[in-house]
Specification:
The chain is of the alpha/beta class and 411 residues long. Helices cover 27% and strands 27% of the residues. The chain is elongated.
């Protein structure tokens, strides 16, 4: 054999011996020389590896841990949170990476993050939710803005439906709608109340504590003179008188709530007791007529002091809670006097009412009662309507266009 071939073989044998020796040393690593090179990183993801994330919502890490051999290596894990774009829907890979200290071994763990958009945009009205405009004046809508967690500013996409007619008194609704790229829709509305400043030209007759057979007589008079009124109804008087309530609604009168029991000790013992009692009447009126009342009157009025016998300061609280319960409350600025006693002379009641009307209140609201004991009230109403109309007054029911009359609260 030639020397050159022998030399090659020798070299080859030496290389093999060295490689085998290195592998034995690497595997056995008796002295731990290669320990740090051989360590395999491990990453343990906590929670689900597939997460659905609502667009625009920051990702909250469920947690993870990592080790390098026996050592905690959690702080050494690299996570590319910037790979998740919460402003765009789609599926993202969130990769967790850990390499051993010598850079010879690396491991990865992956979470799949699906960013979805199921949340509707938010519409914010500019200006008030309720706007009042005098009849004949121009209405200029203040507009609205819209924002979406994913799509950002959508104000330019808002569709506005505006049917306000300031030539006619009434309550109008301006509707705002918008949709985001995912098809989620949002809506908002503004109530525009077109009102006529009464200046004593319009009178609002109101009747408490009914219905009764006297209510029928009053309805007959109102129909005869083509006038309307407001009835603050006591719920416990409804059973057996459902037809009267239906007639009120059918003939265009306003049905309002005056509690169920009218029992001061019961209704004014607590806030919860009052609203529970009140709600019974509201529900019953709606059941009978299909109309859900939005007006109410406190027994004794907002200024009553008798409530202090049962709960100190309750009227201050209750009057402040009306709007939260969907009500506007009305007191009065003209009293017929029929609350003082039954059977008072009709002339006395008539004189009280007309004197108040002639004082030219901006919004004359007359307090009367229509229980079975108020026969003289019916007689007074007949004359008030006849004379009032001849003097140029109109008699209308309270609606959203009427500015509420509130007494000073004394408890």
């Amino acid at each position: 054999m030639k020397k050159s071939v022998k030399a090659v073989i020798a070299v080859f044998v030496v290389l093999i011996v060295l490689a085998v020796g290195f592998l034995l040393v690497w595997q056995l690593d008796v002295f731990g020389i290669f320990k740090e090179y051989k360590i395999k990183p491990e990453i343990n993801l906590q929670g689900s590896t597939e997460i659905t994330l609502e667009g625009g919502t920051p990702f909250e890490e469920p947690g993870f841990s990592a080790t390098l051999g026996d050592e905690d290596a959690t702080d050494l894990v690299e996570v590319d949170y910037k790979s998740i774009d919460i402003t765009k829907t789609g599926t993202y890979e969130l990769i967790y990476t850990l390499t051993n200290k010598k850079g010879t071994n690396k491991t990865e763990a992956v979470r799949l993050i699906e960013v979805v958009d199921t949340t509707a945009p938010t519409i914010t009205l500019k200006g008030g939710k309720t706007v009042k405009v005098k009849i004949g004046e121009a209405y200029k809508d203040a507009g609205a803005t819209a924002a979406d967690k994913v799509d950002g500013d959508l104000s330019k996409n808002i569709q506005i439906q505006n049917n306000v007619d300031t030539s006619k008194k009434g309550k109008y609704t301006v509707k705002y709608t918008v949709a985001d790229a995912a098809g989620n829709k949002a809506s908002a509305q503004r109530d525009v109340i077109v009102f006529k400043q009464s200046s004593g030209e319009v009178v609002y007759l109101t009747f408490d504590d009914g219905p009764s057979y006297n209510t029928i007589k009053i309805l007959d008079l109102l129909k005869q003179y083509d006038c309307h009124a407001t009835f603050f109804i006591v719920g416990q008087n409804i059973p057996g008188n459902e037809a009267i309530l239906k007639r009120m609604a059918d003939e265009g009168h306003t049905l309002a709530v005056h509690t169920y029991t009218h029992d001061y000790a019961e209704i004014y013992r607590s806030e919860a007791a009052f609203w529970a009692d009140n709600q019974k009447t509201r529900d019953l009126i709606k059941k009978v007529t299909g109309v859900e009342p939005v007006f109410m009157r406190f027994p004794g009025g907002g200024s009553n002091t008798i409530s202090a016998n049962y709960s100190s300061g309750i009227m201050s609280t209750l009057t402040g809670q009306c709007k939260d319960h969907g009500y506007e409350y009305f007191d009065w600025n003209i009293s017929s006097g029929d609350a003082n006693a039954d059977g008072l002379p009709a002339k006395q009641l008539y004189d009280n009412i007309m004197a108040g009307i002639h004082e030219n209140y901006e919004t004359p609201i007359v307090l009367m009662h229509d229980t079975g004991a108020k026969d003289t009230t019916v007689t007074a109403v007949a004359k008030v309507l006849k004379v009032g109309l001849s003097e140029g007054y109109a008699f209308e029911a309270i609606d959203e266009t009427v500015s509420p009359i509130h007494h000073a609260v004394n408890n």
